[in-house]
Amino acid sequence: MLEHMAEYSFRIATQTDIQAITDIYNAAVIRGGSSADITPRTFEQRKAWVESHHDPYAVFVTTTPKPDGGEEVIGFSALSVFYDRAGYDGVTDLAYYIAPEWQGRGAGVFTLSGLLDECRNRHMRKACGIIFADNKGSIALMRRFGFTQFGLMPQAATDSTGTMRDMSYWYLDL
After folding, report:
1. Residue 163: inside a domain, yes or no?
2. How much is the pTM?
3. Cα–Cα dist 73/96, whole Å
4. Neighbour count for residue 64 (Cβ, 10 Å)
């Protein structure tokens, strides 16, 4: 794997991580190309989102050490309900966001690896990712980890830039 991965840690998110989660998510919303939210989310909205995840679903953070001995949250990810019907238990919708300055440094690979470990530890049977079809970084991650594309919905969602985007649908049998 990548040499940078030793710099990263992966853990369940806590209340003290919500501001970092909000900031990372809003950077993605503002930049466009990875979220169908068209305006930044508030701290309270992100807090409610984190708190809406109940076992076996959860929100996680990816961190890196700070020179002062603390840690910096550089990304977050989530295992969320795929479809709210009991027959879909064991299928999870996964998502991940990496702070812009940490993209391209192995943090996405590390985060998705940790997220898939959590899927297996939580006895999920399938992981699904719903991604803008032109999001080259996320598509590359899906392929790297063996996900299969099972659908494409043309012109399905608009991002904050006003661009109408196709959505690609991916799954991995766990």
Report:
1. no
2. 0.93
3. 13
4. 18
For 130, residues 6+ apart whose C-beta sits below 8 A from its C-beta are: 93, 167, 168, 169, 170
Collapsing DSSP to helix, strand or coil, 95 comes out as: strand
Question: pLDDT per residue over 8-27, tens digit each?
Answer: 999 999 999 999 999 999 99
Confirm whether 150 is domain-assigned: no
The pLDDT tens digits of the residues spanning 107-135 come to 999 999 999 999 999 999 999 999 999 99
Q: Going by C-beta distance under 8 Å and a sequence separation of 6 or more, which residues neighbour residue 132?
A: 33, 34, 138, 157, 159, 165, 166, 167, 168
Q: What is the pLDDT of residue 4?
A: 47
Which pLDDT score is estimated for 6? 54
Pair 119, 90: CB distance under 8 Å: no
CA distance 24 to 73: 9
Contact 9, 114 (CB under 8 A): no
Report yes or no on 16 lying in a domain. Answer: yes
For the chain, report the end-to-end CA distance as a whole number of angstroms: 21
* Inside any domain, residue 132: no
Provide the residue range defining the domain that includes 52: 3-124
Number of domains in the chain: 1
